[in-house]
Amino acid sequence: MLNFDSLEEKIKSGDYSPKELYMYASLLYAQPDRHDESLEYYLSFIKSPGDMKYSGVKAYLNVHAIMMERQEYKKAFHILTDFESRNHHMSEFYCTLGDYHDRVQGDLTKAIDAFEQALKCKGELKGGARVPIEKEFYHFVPYMRLAELHSELKQLPKALEYYKEASLHRYNDLALHKKIRELEAQLK
Hints:
By secondary structure, the chain is mostly helical. The protein is built from twelve helices and no strands.
């Protein structure tokens, strides 16, 4: 395994694999003061053949996060939508898209659609290869966000339904169970 310095040397020499490019971009991204640098390498990686083999959706989400930090909202949106075909199987992708629709565009309908799509995702690449997935994004996160969005729209029975689904994946979350009891009382 390469350490950061030898990996950086390899990248600078131009003799690297897509996997090494992704690793380097990710190591830079892990350092908040080097996000701008990591962006350059992530974008090169995304354009390289085999990008999905090594990172799954993570490279796209990190580029999106950098664009959001920079308040380059159109670019943040396009990194998601332009590459949807590569990420359509990943719930993390649709959860991020749903958050964007809600928090940046204020479009709750599109946000709900994205979170509902997230619930349909299995996280598998074509050919059956698995990528590391963040399990929270396949159950808890979309259910919780759907509950919050339906609450905001004053669709309380639907919100309650989603809160209850979320609680199945966080059975020890006392604040969530309190919210469910409060909503049940309110709907009586």
